[in-house]
Amino acid sequence: MSDASYRDAIFSTPLDRVARFSFDERVVACFPDMIRRSVPGYGQILGMLGLIAQRHLRHGARVYDLGCSLGAGGLALAGQLAPDAFRYTGVDLSPAMVSRARETLAAECPDHAMEVIEGDIRQLEYQPAGMIVLNFTLQFLPPKDREAVVARLFAALEPGGVLVLSEKIRAEDEQENAWLVERYHDFKRANGYSDLEISQKRTALENVLVPDTLAEHHARLDQAGFSRTHTWFQLLNFASLIAFKHEASRGGATPTPDEV
Ligand SMILES: Nc1ncnc2c1ncn2[C@@H]1O[C@H](C[S@+](CC[C@H]([NH3+])C(=O)[O-])CC(=O)[O-])[C@@H](O)[C@H]1O
Ligand SMILES: O=C(O)C(=O)Cc1ccccc1
Q1: Which end of the chain is more exposed for a tag (fewer CB within 10 A), N or C?
Q2: Which residues make Cβ contacts (< 8 Å) with residue 17, sequence separation at least 6?
Q3: Which amino acid positions bind S-adenosyl-L-methionine, per UniProt (predicted)?
Q4: Residues in CB range of 149: below 8 A, 6 or more apart
Q5: Is 69 marked as a binding-site residue?
Q6: CA of 114 to the centre of ligand 2 (A)
Q7: Which ligand is nearest to the CA of 238?
């Protein structure tokens, strides 16, 4: 298969019926362009993964990248960490994404331990992990399935482990939300998408990408058992959170900010 990447023009012509958005071959072919032009802060969030891992990951521990798409999270980590610093397991449900991700990671980081599993993050048998990345993936699960997945991830994390959760979010306040969505559409327009593309993509994502509020995310993480959660990034209606699983062996000692 070719590793060429194309400009996203999927919603550029008028469609009689806009189908539900899916991660099929057509999306895979233009995905790097689509996500960079559609997700404010995407590159900056990826660039922080290595820094977060350097601070919080036990040397040699496993990192899960759930809904890894083309393995961008793995590439970012391998670019910043030594081969013995971590073992990467990407997981994605889309066969087209998985085969491209495997090719890219084998070619770009042959010295690192990188595997990609085709599977559903709701059913995966998780191995113990030091860091779990959900970079714009939880938002695609039916809302009723989100709590159970987060609980499973908490169980899979080693004490001292971290979950990085990046999501499109909805603001609680209707006016604030409307302002953020309008400026997000401006952002897309400035990145070369037409009004037609913006509106057809919006239709395709209805009931497929269902954003939660930041308060809902924090509450779900707290409920799963995470000892602390921070919102460390937000640009318009896109945000990233970090959740810490408490180090069990500290026996009541007060954790420093880096140890929470
Ligand atoms: N149940 C599921 N199980 C596994 N994968 C799933 C599931 N549902 C959806 N996916 C996968 O989650 C990914 C979401 S994209 C992630 C970007 C990437 N993290 C990146 O940093 O480039 C986000 C976006 O396109 O906005 C797709 O590849 C789906 O196939
Ligand atoms: O929310 C949107 O309008 C987007 O375009 C985000 C997005 C980016 C890439 C794939 C699916 C959704």
Answers
A1: N
A2: none
A3: 42, 67-69, 120-121, 135, 202
A4: 121, 122, 138, 141
A5: yes
A6: 26
A7: 2
SS3 156: helix
According to the 3-state scheme, what is the secondary structure of 74-140? Answer: HHHHHHHCCHHHEEEEEEECCHHHHHHHHHHHHHHCCCCEEEEEECCCCCCCCCCEEEEEEECCHHH
Burial class (CB in 10 A: 0-12, 13-18, 19+), 14: exposed
Which sequence spans correspond to the domains of the chain?
A: 25-247
What are 129's two structure tokens? 């992990």
Residue 215, judged by CB atoms within 10 A of its CB (0-12, 13-18, 19+), counts as: exposed
pLDDT digits 0-9 by tens, 126-157: 999 999 999 999 999 999 999 999 999 999 99
Q: Residue 184, Cβ neighbours under 10 Å: how many?
A: 19
Please tell me the residue having the least CA distance from ligand 2 atom 6.
38
Q: ipTM strictly over 0.95?
A: yes
Angstrom distance (rounded) from CA 72 to CA 6: 16
**256: CA distance to ligand 1 center in Å?**
34
CATH architecture of the domain formed by 25-247: 3-Layer(aba) Sandwich (3.40)
Residue 45 counted as an annotated binding residue: no
Residue type, 8: D
Tokens 């969505």 found at: 181
CB-based pocket (< 6 A), ligand 1: 23, 35, 67-69, 72-73, 91-94, 97, 120-122, 135-137, 140-141
